[in-house]
Amino acid sequence: MGTGSLASLDVERLAGRLYRVATLYSARRTLEKDMGLSAREASAVLGALPAARVPEVRPDAPLDDPFRRRRSGDFPFGSGRYSDGSFGVLYSAEDEETAKIEASSFVLRRAQERGTTWTLHKWLLRFDLEGDGKDLTPFTGTWPELTARTEDSYPTCQRLGREAKDDGLDALRVPSARRSGGVCVPVLSRDSVSNEGDRTPITITADVASDSVSVAP
Fold this sequence. Notes:
217 residues, alpha+beta, seven-stranded mixed β-sheet, globular
């Protein structure tokens, strides 16, 4: 497990519509920077807002932010399944349902950590991808870590992400770890995505007692 590289896989032209669930609050900066609230306190305030909230005002923020440096040093970006934080990744999916399920699993995990039911208001984003990439969806036998549900699998996936980034690829097609048959697309290049603007507000509620998540609408 965890061996091999992307070198033997063909480069493909990846193009199509992608979906991502994200938080787009211009109010967060005000709450944390101007009012001095902690990140947790700001999240509690924002989570209580109704669905008719105002999204981040910068038009390209949803596509730009994953590639913005958050701190100095060798790991200035947020770490995740396909990056150790040394480069930015925009996580997305090829269909709405997979995007929602991937985001919902994160909310449930955080609710379990808090030990309480948690409701978050987010946005379902739609945008276009066009760039070079490689398709890893047929290789779960080679890399079972692609669909593993624990962070123990991250080093292998991060190594593949690093290889793809170093090779100048724009994105990867990978199997969803949360939805059977779903396809996720970690985007590695900001220039390969465009036309974001079609947004739908959604509400994700994680119920710790029943160990379940609901998404509305």
